[in-house]
Design goal:
single chain, mainly alpha, 5 helices, 0% strand, flat
Length: 106
């Protein structure tokens, strides 16, 4: 009997977490729209890191991918993106992300 109660608790907790993440996502997106330049790029990078830590790899890839190559945050974002793609077995896309880093090494 206790195991079914804890199963319900885990399910409720997952729903609460999902709801909190959705609200946080909406807030971040509205804040992000107000940012420009390096502030926006840094926010995208940090959003990618947060999503990666939460296990939202698609969200992390999307955030890292939105950082322009001219940005000072691009090399860090491209490294994270390449690692995520490699872990997911998307080797061609990972190689492209690593190749995009080459000009930043000079």
């Amino acid at each position: 009997m206790m195991s079914s109660g804890s199963g319900s608790g885990a399910s409720s907790r997952q729903l609460l977490d999902a709801g909190a993440n959705s609200l946080a996502d909406l807030e971040i997106r509205s804040e992000l729209d107000e940012l420009h330049g390096v502030d926006r790029e840094q926010a995208l990078y940090r959003m990618g890191l947060a999503r990666e830590r939460l296990g939202d790899y698609a969200g992390a890839r999307a955030a890292f991918s939105r950082i322009p190559e001219e940005s000072a945050w691009f090399p860090r974002a491209a490294q994270h993106l390449a690692r995520l793609l490699t872990a997911e077995g998307q080797f061609d896309a990972a190689a492209a992300a690593y190749r995009a880093l080459v000009p930043t090494l000079v």
